[in-house]
Write a structure and sequence with these properties.
The complex is a heterodimer of chains A (about 140) and B (about 120). Chain A is α/β, with parallel strands linked by helices. Chain A is about 35% helix and about 20% strand. The mean pLDDT of chain A is about 95. A five-stranded parallel beta sheet of chain B has the order 4-3-2-1-5. Chain B starts with a strand and ends with a strand. The chains are: A alpha/beta (about 140), B alpha/beta (about 120). The interface between A and B is medium-sized, with 20 and 18 residues.
Chain lengths: ~140, ~120
């Protein structure tokens, strides 16, 4: 019986600016195929752009935010965008929209917005934490 | 579970170092042992007399000096990088431990996180 490990994936590179979300999705799919568990996906820094409901790439290009959404929903994996990273970059859910009296919200389901505590918890609980960075 | 956060880029040119500092402070806030290692151009975070108001940013120096108060266990710097960028006790913020081997330092921690 092969060993099963639990993972937290941290994505800090943005789609269309880096390869980070694509690489992370390929790794995530292989982890599931190999019967590992993904506890949580955490978007940080530029990585939060992956959770935008407004990304609209040309129709002949892969839609990374949608591909990630579908993967997360299919496997019931919680995914969180860091609130400080998200607010700075204009990614808000309805609660933050109301709090800051903003004209719109744009968080893609099933992503949620929460604090760095989610990352700390993942770091403590998961057997492995993998980071997917954009180019420096 | 101890975590080492590695900052290898100079302050102000990108946001990654600042967000790495936030990660470190967050670990400390949840009582998780955390330390910062500055290496390469990242050692410039440690220079005294920074005047970032001219580029509309907050002082990294000031943010960093708060780290021990928030429970960050150690501030480490690669000694070779310090030498390369002309940093010594005279122009570095206090409380920094210089390390000769970053590889050995990383081995002392359960997790190592590079600033994005």
């Amino acid at each position: 019986m092969p060993t099963t490990l639990s993972y937290t994936l941290v994505i800090t590179g943005a789609p269309w600016a880096s390869q980070a979300p694509q690489t992370a999705l390929n790794v995530a799919q292989e982890l599931i195929n190999a019967n590992h568990r993904i506890d949580r996906v955490f978007l940080y820094g530029e990585g939060i752009h992956l959770a935008s409901a407004l990304s609209t790439p040309p129709s002949d290009e892969k839609h990374w935010p949608r591909a990630w959404s579908e993967f997360l929903t299919e496997h019931s994996i919680p995914a969180v965008a860091c609130v400080a990273s998200a607010l700075r970059r204009g990614l808000v859910d309805e609660a933050e929209q109301a709090r800051y009296e903003l004209p719109a919200s744009n968080l893609r389901a099933p992503f949620e917005i929460a604090g760095l505590g989610e990352w700390v918890e993942g770091s403590i609980q998961s057997d492995r934490v993998l980071y997917f960075h954009g180019s420096a | 579970m101890s975590t080492l956060i590695v900052v290898d880029q100079a302050p102000y040119g990108s946001w990654t170092g600042r967000e790495a500092l936030d990660m470190t402070l967050s670990l400390a806030a949840f009582d998780q042992p955390a330390a910062l290692l500055f290496t390469g151009a990242g050692v410039n975070w440690l220079r005294t007399g920074q005047a970032p108001e001219h580029v509309g940013q907050k002082s990294a120096e000031k943010n960093l000096s708060a780290a021990p108060i928030f429970g960050v266990e150690e501030l480490l710097a690669c000694s070779e990088s310090c030498q390369r960028y002309g940093l010594d006790d005279a122009n570095m913020i206090g409380g920094i431990n210089q390390v000769a081997s970053t590889a050995e330092t990383m081995n002392r921690y359960h997790q190592v996180v590079f600033a994005g």
